[in-house]
## 1
Amino acid sequence: MDKLGSKTIIGASATFTGKIANARVVEVHGKVNADLISEKVTIGEAGRFDGAIRADLVVVSGLYEGKMQAGSVWATATASISGKLHYETLQMDRGAALNCHIVHNWRAKADDPEQSNAGNSDVPLPDASNKVKTGTVPSSSKKGV
Amino acid sequence: MIGKNSASPILSPNHSQINVDVRIRGTITVSEPLVMAGQLDGDIKAGELHIASTAIVSGDVTAQNVTIDGRVHGVIVADEVYLSATAHFEGQLNCHGIAIDNGAYVDAKFIKEPVTNG
């Protein structure tokens, strides 16, 4: 299988409908209507993808419509994305068209819904205020240890 | 970070390939060559089709030229079919011309007809 490399390619003339699983690296240059879980997905300039993608890295140069959940997303100048975009890092080239619902750090939010608003609280946390009050007796705490 | 390690000119190859460990449920339609090395539960329509030795296809295959090294279970409709020594084929074969290597496992009904498609 050396000549195949490690990629799965949907060529320019190909039309694919269905579900793709277990593919590591996928290149789409044709029309795909599918749900895909992968590591790296590339949608070429002529490519058109409809459906859900869950991947570590998605490079979009063509048309995408659906729900994308990705670690890194790179939308090149010819990209057009609609639907939902969940990402951790996003790179957009000048000219890229995003017409979608965009959510940052979706993984963290899914794990812990309170984590997202923990950073902007002006009120010090109860632990922190206690430390200030008890800070006058550092020697006593040493004795305790 | 993304830009550095990704090849920016994204070339569009005409051929398609489905890799070894890929599992697919659905339909593939291609007019250019297709190399199928993964598992497919569904139909293929292609011009030139190579079913590699690691492939397992359950479904109907329609193509002009088919080379089979792997497993196929279903109906093949093609002009020319080549079953290599590692091929395992069960089903029905509608074709114009056929070649079967010594060692190929074939359990099929053969129907000779001049089919042109793909």
## 2
Amino acid sequence: MSSRDTDWDGVRLHVVTGKGGTGKTTVAAALALALAAEGRKVLLIEVEGRQGIAQVFDLPPLPYEERKIAVAPGGGDVYALALDPEEAMLEYLEMFYGMRRTGRALSKLGIVDFATTIAPGFRDVLVTGKTTEAVRRKGKNGRRIYDAVVLDAPPTGRVVRFLNVTNEVAGLARVGPIKNHADLVSGVVASPETAVHFVTLLEEMPVQETLDGITELRRAGLPAGGVFINMVRGSLLPEAALDAAAAGRFDPAELALGLKAAGLAEGGSGTAVAEALAQEVTEHARRAELERQERTSLDAADRPRYELPLLSDGVDLAGLYELAETMREQGAA
Amino acid sequence: MVKNVPVLDLDAIIDDPGTRIIVCCGSGGVGKTTTAAALGLRAAERGRCAVVLTVDPARRLAQSMGLSELDNTPRLIKGVEGAGTGKLYAMMLDMKRTFDEIIEAHADPERARQILTNPFYQSLSSSFSGTQEYMAMEKLGQLRRSGEWDLIIVDTPPSRSALDFLDAPERLGRFLDGRFIRMLTAPAKAGGRSAFKLLNAGFGLVAGALTKLLGAQVLKDLQTFVSALDAVFGGFRTRAEQTYKLLQAPGTAFVVVAAPERDAMREASYFVERLAEERMPLAGVVINRVHRSPAAVLSAARSTAAAEDLESRGEHELTSAVLRLHADRMQLAAREQREQDHFTSAHPTVPVARVPAMPGDVHDLDGLREVGTLLAAQ
């Protein structure tokens, strides 16, 4: 570990969730970069078969294999793994039972498909099992292979069920090896080594889902992490102008003068442009007011918060590094 | 900018009495549910007797329609205007309830009890990743068969893989026809002795492995569940196939909902292609949350240059801030346009409707009505 203090020292498993459309995968990817900075080694895992990691890093589809995909600022490695439940099951069978061939036979018979169809709890326990195995894995020197593991988890609505595997599996298997495996998994997931982070936008629905998700997580005894507010638009306007605009009192006259001074009022178009811009300012101010309300709502969660700027050119590789840097500045990593 | 993109005329679709089903699909977080509800309200106010079937548990939607909560039964929405006899109903899919009702309706009481209390059934009915999609199809079929509504608007689940709800019947079929299920049910229904023996030999091997993995009780529960369910599922699949055919019929219109962002537009492309593959009738694409500027005559470049000029002179601080704000907005609009162009150049014949971004969320019928007006005004 570096000498810097972060909000999550001691956390080895960072689970990232969020409502659809909030940029969960992007945030997970940037967090992995931030955590790997200055010579550390981080594994980024995705579980939903979307190849989202490959897309944000602009890479061809990733195989079921831990593979180095990026170098972090100041030297440090990000590895990625696109988890596939079927492969995870075969690996599990081999690792714990030495049943590779039986595994292949089960797979051929459609058993894995069957198991994931009828009991998603099994699927989840395989996926979280592989994840926690990577968290616990040690090298020859007895130290952990990865300094941290970042899991791009299912969306907010499903994440507690996904992580609460013991509970899910308990209904189906009260005893037996799957149950033991689930217990091992929950030993990691419910420990202080884990933090479940939420990604949200400053909009009503994602904020509400975040608050509901945190409540649900706490009720299940799982460790809530931070809240990443994504795509924040900085306000360029002075507070007083925003307040006036929000109240519908923004005066375009001063703007018209300014436009004239800037040489944008040719042919007497200054007033019309000023009025159109004033309308834009009013819309912006209303939105800023709503965002302020959503920030206040998020106070109820009482979690560390990080603000990530909206990248005006969209998210590319450079944008990911920029987000990672912002996270480090704010103490998220 | 791609020229001559056909316009999606949603009024023509909801006014056509031949349109009986509208399916709104799209990735999560693009305003699909709001679009479905707004279309429902507009259709009702233009004289249709419409029902909106949503899978979104957000209470906000219910409240915007004047209900404290939506449940598994269509509820009449008050406050619908318009001169005609139109009505609007809304309901939220309760997948477990819908599943339970099917079991209760199609199995004798003893078998129904066996199924309903089985741990595998409980897991399947509350968390099978395809159950929600499947039950949405089932409910759609029920609503259609009831004949009480002349227009059904469905908001599909925000699926992980885009068209899970279309795949659900096939997945269920594969699940039930799979060799594994046949093995599990074989001892109970095998007629010929040799078939029984053959299957049983295979079953012994698999059962051994599974027992090792899951424990004996799990396997026993599983077997009970499968044989109990097997008897019920025949009718299940037939109806799923009927609903699938219904979706392909001319009375159905698929509306793909998107937002002008890369991921959402990529998903929209995928939906459009999948619908074509499945020969499902696509009406068009609705692109929500499009940013426009009332001052579009002023380009981002000129705006930025003017702001720099003012800043260097130390004059008109407010104006330079507003100009920067405007430049940001124009850049956002340009980026959104590029994402839309990617889509329209790949799918030049797909009609598109655009809805401008609104500052806040929809909270009431007036808000839904406004969205409806924007949807129609293309």
## 3
Amino acid sequence: MSSVVSKIREPLITGHKSYHDITEDLVSPTEKVPGPSWVIAFIVSVSVLAFGLFCIAWTIWHGIGTWNLNRTIGWGWDITNFVWWIGIGHAGTLISAILLLFRQKWRTGVNRAAEAMTIFAVICAALFPGIHVGRAWVVFYFFPYPNTRGPLWPNFDSPLLWDLFAISTYFTVSLLFWYTGLVPDFATVRDRAKGFRKKIYNTLSFGWTGSAKHWQRWESLSLILAGIATPLVLSVHTIVSFDFATSVIPGWHTTIFPPYFVAGAIFSGFAMVLTLMIITRKVLNLQDYITIEHIESMNKVILVTGTIVGVAYLTELFIAWYSQYPYEQFAFFNRALGPYWWSYFGMMFCNVVTPQFFWVKKFRRNVALTFFLSIIVNIGMWFERFVIIATTLARDYLPSSWSFYVPTWVEIGIFLGTMGLFFTFYLIFVRVAPVVAIAEVKSILKSSGDQYLGPNAIHHEHSGHDKVIMDPIHSDEISDEHHGHGDAPSDTPGSPADIGTEQAVKTGKDVKGETKVSNTYVPSSRKEGSEKDDLKKIEGIGPKIEEVLNNSAIMTYIDLVNTDVGRLNAILENAGSNFRQHDPSTWSAQAKLAAEGRWEELKKWQDELDGGKTKK
Amino acid sequence: MEKENTITEYNFTGTSRLVLLIGMGLGVVCMILSFFLDGGVEHHARFWSNFLHNSVFFTGIALMATFFIAVCITAWAGWYTIFKRVWEAFSQFLIVGFILMLIIGIGIYLHWHHLYHWADQTILNPENEEVYDAILHGKSAFLNTTWYVIIGGLIVLVWVFFAYKLRALSLDEDQNGGDANFSHHRSMRWYAAAFLPIAGFSSAAMIWLWIMSVDSHWYSTLFAWYTGASWFVSMIALTILVLVYLKNRGYFANVSAEHFHDLGKFMFAFSIFWTYLWFSQYMLIWYANVGEETTYFKQRIDHYPVLFYGNLIINFIVPFFVLMRNDTKRKYGTLVFVSIVLLLGHWWDFFLMLKPGILHTAHEAAGMTGEHGGFTPGFTIPGLLEIGTMLGFLSLFLFVAFSVLSRSSLVAKNDPFLEESLHHHV
């Protein structure tokens, strides 16, 4: 990657993080006892999953007749859900592989979770072909096997078999890719762990030591896997589209299906990544790593792929007319104005109309709207598959066999069950592995951290170069030692320097001077002289805490606004047991009002607060 | 600011002009010859099909240059900045493309040629029972001269506007740019983003009109994207060739192996993407075996096997195996070789898209029915006159591009991404 970064770009890591801060922030969710929100979410997910398993058991016990499929509509919710989940499983490997090849730095904030999501989505998808055959014990018919059905190996002719290969290959490579990325991060977790936990993470990290040789092999493996995964991203949904497009069913047989399915899959995959990441960054306090800039970039991908899908819809519609082939024309007439017209309009509205909001920068950077639209997009993509599958089948060549289909509770239950499965896996994942790739985020800190780039950066004019100089921090030994060699992820977990920092922070005794806790944070006050605000005006901060904060280089309201809650907690924790009970959650919001001079509002709010805490 | 001192003004020398003028002259001579040596095909089909083929091919390259500038601006790409003037120069050929396509459009009105079967009014009239074509009559709301000339012309003018505007903003940035708000880049982003969906929709319509409607009964939803990919690879190949030439003349000293490596990657990736689309279209039509669709490939495999299989070898096998390695994308020898092959290869692909349909139409117009195999000069494979015509159009394209290039600085000195591009490292 280029070491020069244009000033026009925005930082991708905010909060003036040091390498140690990154480790701290990203590993700690795996070390703490889960909070109530996690426990509730987990119980709900597992319950829904249990109901889904019950419905699957019901299907297998009583037979496929418990679904409402009929002679005309042989594929309903089952294959709709299958294609929907497979589509969602596209963003992960796209982010990892294709964005790696395009050197998009923002991928580092979201790639880990997106890859995990890919794997879980593919597992959910793979369930449906397995159970839709009805007789689960003959599911080996999927696989080609010799001779009992003649010498021709007939199922090689079928795109359904190609699908089996495509998806299993994709799953394998995605899993390898995901795990490869996790190895150094597991080692980081291991280095902070004790006892049995340390043993487990040591095994998981394959005894990673962080030597140069390890990194070199790790990097070449990542590149090779990216090279393999890129065509795979295209191939999987291409072959899923072949399931339909190789037929002679009007509305299914159209040549644009392969690339248009791929675009649609990326579209829905990114929408699901957004849904998950917006929740995750909030719950785990990762706003400094999954920034608004990340969300905006993903929204741009949503807009692009949504519009590509729109072009494809209109192309299909136009060519159906242009072909002058009456069955093709009828298929599209039926989609838009037939008995399932609502699903066609749902698809058009959710997939083509709503993403157009993202033309406006303000909307792209609006987290609440993004969250809402990301769910809308996935509803729309579900409709798209339903339109293609059930709507098309409902009106075939013979009007005498036309039919209508609504799912039974069993089919709905199985779909809900896959949701439960997906979220159960995801919730476990955020507990056991760093949800943001530590090593990769560290690799972009020097080029995209907000102390180097953007409005909060410290600019140096140096030897006539009009650019941001790469080391404005007061170069303490730690970062020097780590990053004397360019910006490869050389912050090897387990290196002496890293352990040194950890100890320094843990004991608290070695913390001398005022910058140890936040050793890279250069507050605005230090840049512009010795400005200092009265932090005691913030409810919850007394003279002692003010001193602690000042020692951590938080001097002004602005500094406090720029310090996130996790950081404040860490500062308080390090200051000794007396300080631990304080809850800094409202401090930065209070400081914001103070910094803006809105004392009236602050006063009013403080009256409602109880010692700086929100009343329960 | 610059890594190396480099010449920032391109001097379009008399010698270069002369060479390109000779090339154009050769093209004119070949076109005049093809007007008369048409191998017995009516309506001077050889001349007009060559005219259409090259106009469409080079206009598409200019469109793709505009499109890719817009993509790069929207994606906040930095690496291409030092040579973006080359793409800006390519994009200005759209004005010439507009005139070329207008000539073909006027030709439809004035019956100069018979490239498009749908333009024949007699077959659209149900009263002419012998020749009435219900399918084309059904399509006539789209396949008609108004769409081709008026709406098509307007669409190309919209492309010209965006190509002009993006370049004008870029040139203005040289003079007045460099402010802290990056206002020029903001404005370019606006135009670039607006152009992307416009190009996405309108290019499909133009490809259907200009190219797909040559086989007037046949249809394929993928066709527009397939053709677009073919244009895109040609554009990248021509960019590499022009950059290597200019570098050898001492310009663009800062364009390094790193930039060529990325261009090579694009050429490699989009060659594979082109093949992917080729395969998707072919395989789905072959598998479903619907007569209305398979006729397109059957005609080509039966009567144009050299073109048909050659197309795949040239445009897939060669770039795939040569550009697979890292170092071949960084060396001039291999890169130039593949670029030449691909530029000719995609020109060949357009030949295969257009010529069989045009010949079929010409035969129909001449009252011939049934199978008509055998060798037809200028149709079965590209002859010397076709290659000469192509060189003429290529010279025209380069003449326009170099003239545009010589009128402004080669370095977009106030572009916010220039430093990134200068220090680009793969």
## 4
Amino acid sequence: MSLEFLLGGTILISLLFYAVLGGADYGGGVWDLLASGKSVKTQRKIISEAMGPVWEANHVWLILVVVALFTAFPAAFARLSLVFHIPLTVALFGIVLRGCAFTFRHYHGHGDGHAADEMEWRWGRVFAVASLITPLVLGVVVGGIYSGRATSDVGFVYGWFGAFPVSVGIFVLCLFAYVAATYLTIESDGHPEAQEAFRRRALWSGAATMVAGGVVLLAGETSGISNGRTGVSVWAVRGVTLVVALAGLLQVKKRHFQASRVLAVLEVALIFAGWGAAQYPYLIPPDISIYSAAAPVGTLRALTVALAAGAVVLFPSFYYLFYVFKREPVSQSKHYGR
Amino acid sequence: MSDLLAARSQMAMSLMFHIVFAVAGMAMPLMMVIAEWRWLGSGDETYLVLAKKWAQGTAILFAAGAVSGTVLSFELGLLWPKFMQFAGAIIGMPFSLEGFAFFAEAIFLGVYFYGWDKVSPRIHLLAGVVVAVSGLLSGIFVVIANAWMNAPAGFQMQNGVAIHVDPIAAMLNPGTLGQTTHMAIAAYASVGFAVCGIHAFLLLRRPGNLFHLHALKIALWVGGIAAVLQPFSGDMLARMVAKNQPAKLAAFEGQFKTEAHAPLRIGGLASERDKSTHYALEIPGGLSWMIYGSTDATVTGLDRFPEQDWPAVPIVHMSFQVMVGSGFAMMAVALAGLWFGRKPSELAKRRWMLKLLVAASPLGFLALEAGWIVTEVGRQPWIVYNVLRTSEAVTPMHGMIVPFASFTALYVFLGIVVAVLLIRQMRQSV
Ligand code: HDD
Ligand code: HEM
Ligand code: HEM
């Protein structure tokens, strides 16, 4: 296995972690926006308490992706920064507003009286809307990369402005919302009303994800974007993804929430595997591959060692974080309700 | 405004915003940990309340630091794609290591903020220590990258491409030791002084309040020790700059002519048009002595460099004076504070001392921002000193004024909100 392959794979896996952890935090914001029914307050509270201790750590996966990318494949980072300047800038706005509003809501809402409630409500809106826009735009960037339009002379708009990238954006949004809903069914254990609300949302967002995914595949195959890039193995991965997605929905329906969470994560992982396989060895088709963009071998070696050493510290720490805060659903911790 | 100027301004604005929160993320955890440790040791509940109060404020600052830092990592590419294409392979390493420091920081900050009644007190304190250490490390790693821009090492240039890239040698560049030390001390000095001033102000209003007295004591120790050390590390750094970037040093000092017996200029206005520095208090031979240990030594002036390669001398000179002036003022205040603060209750009775601490509280942040302007503007027109020009590295994108204006508006808004929230927190305090 070449270092290029190893590092490219590590970056893809880090992005996968960002999707199943950070992505779920965006999904949480979407469900905050769409909260309705009698248990609205409980729903929002569960979302907020589920995210509180972990969202900043989850967010760091994105930073790891960026820094590893510009260290190992600087030419790819430069191309991305050029072609996707506009959507990335919008995503940054979303990231800033989402993170700040989430925190401000908590502290502005402290204290009593109508004014505090009012502020809490406003920041809640900012948080929720930013959580909706950011994954959409990040998805558009992924769609633009996959579509093979991001060549060096494409300018600043054509690379991402089109039906295919936008359909990927919608797909990513649905996917994150689905993943979040499956987590929230578990977090809301003991609150039947809220749990039922999240279960319904998991069902229809899961279905929406499958439809959007179908549209993406169809658009990709018919417009020639995937031309020649999708061999048998890619179709095999896609087939398995479909089975897993259906199984996940079935488990949600049957209220086997632990199982549905695992299947949702597996679904995302398979989608990433399919994406990686369809694009291999290109980071940015048609011309930037893990080999053509790679840094000199000394850098690749040093980075591999650093990532390996970092992982030894990182995974136990992450395990501990989730052990402390995710052992029991937020609705049942003694912290809840203070 | 040209696109290049807009890009430079956006970078400057983003960094000057981020650094405020970054230093809080480096220094506040240390002070929280000291307070919590004192609580565990003495059983005095006031310390526990203090640790919790500080943690609440830090949570707000940390969120702003994390998101503005994310913006910066993308901006390196969005604004300077050719810089990253060239430098990513050489200097990506410290950024990658920084990534792991961020992980440790964010994970254990989650445990610290939300885990008061979920983990044992010892583990809680330990989580705080991890946050303090990883905050310091993330600051050090990113400044290593900056030191490399000032004193590039670890590669050779051949026909415009870097060969023989050695990322470890790049990290150990000649600027690293001096800059990281100076930056780490600056973080504790600036945050320590700011916090000290806040609690001194509240003590003036509520004399004898134990909460603010404890807070003042911790902040004074952290900020005071750092402020006393800072001029020494600054002196070391200046010598390093004289060796690696003589044009920058000449700009600091408003030294236009290459001369022996170069005077040390205190204050003054540098004028590029007259090629001289006016109204400065001059100590004859002072600069030669500071750098080379002999008043006869020759100091390289700006005349040795083509004029188009000069940085904006008046800005660099002025900012340098502001930093050094603040630095010595802080050192004096810190010495007085630490002397009278041997018994904190005595300190609190001297109202003039408290007023002095209030007056000195913005100096650290002033020096911090001024120091970065010295470093960054002083490096111009180079983004990587003597290797790559800023104008060659900038994005070809047009209309850069749009992102600059929007990010500025966003950050001004966020800055105001953070200030309002922190003031509310303080109002609600004991
Ligand atoms: C609390 C903040 C603070 C204080 C009191 C001082 N500085 Fe400073 N200085 C910084 C905060 C800072 C900084 C913002 O952190 C910089 C910018 C880059 C760096 O590494 O540190 C800096 C840069 C910086 C540089 C430029 C390094 C370069 O361009 O590579 C020099 C020569 C000095 N300082 C020297 C001094 C001296 C002689 C001081 C005497 C009192 C002093 N500083 C006080
Ligand atoms: C947080 C503290 C910092 C502040 C306040 C700061 C300030 C500034 C300022 C004022 C400029 C504009 C200079 C000009 O164009 O005249 C600038 C440029 C820049 N800085 Fe910094 N800087 C900081 C730290 C860093 C660090 C740690 C790095 C990199 C690792 C960095 C990388 C850059 C780059 C790439 C530019 C743009 C190119 C250039 O103008 O040279 N800065 N910074
Ligand atoms: C001297 C300059 C800088 C220092 C001392 C510094 C330090 C820090 C620290 C301590 C944090 C932790 C967050 C907090 O406590 O608020 C942080 C956050 C961050 N910084 Fe900086 N930083 C500097 C400049 C930069 C630059 C130039 C970049 C980008 C290239 C950057 C990228 C980041 C990122 C991505 C985060 C977010 C990490 C998280 O989510 O926890 N920083 N920085």
